[in-house]
Design a protein that fits this description.
Blueprint: H1 4-12, H2 22-31, E1 51-55, E2 60-64, E3 72-75, H3 78-98
Antiparallel strand pairs: 1-2, 2-3
Length: 113
């Protein structure tokens, strides 16, 4: 209950939800027995910045989530690359949580250009 207690204390103290990280809420809900689901193109973790670009070398679109190191996918079209990255983001987060690594909260802004 080590990580759960501070999250619960913050929520139960009726503090602003701005003081609670999205990844902490996901962690709490999963440990309370809620099932993590993805429906269609609506992903629970869809707030991460996504960069999509054309790779002339590979002749494919490349999609990256720079806030999640190494999280990238590709596709023949822009839409395929984006859909593939949605799945990879979910897998990245699930893997990180299963091995006890911290999942960064989505910042939703450009980190670099």
């Amino acid at each position: 209950m080590g990580r759960l207690r501070p999250i619960l204390d913050t929520l139960l103290a009726a503090q602003s939800d701005a003081n609670t990280e999205f990844s902490d809420l996901l962690y709490l809900l999963q440990h309370l027995g809620f099932e993590r689901r993805v429906k269609g193109s609506h992903h629970m973790n869809g707030k991460y910045e996504i960069i999509i670009y054309w790779s002339a070398e590979d002749a494919w679109f490349i999609a990256e989530a720079p806030e999640l190191p190494g999280c990238m996918a590709d596709g023949a079209t822009y839409q395929e690359a984006l859909a593939a990255l949605g799945t990879v983001i979910d897998d990245w987060i699930e893997t990180a949580e299963s091995i006890g690594r911290l999942v960064p909260a989505p910042k939703g802004r450009l980190l670099f250009a």
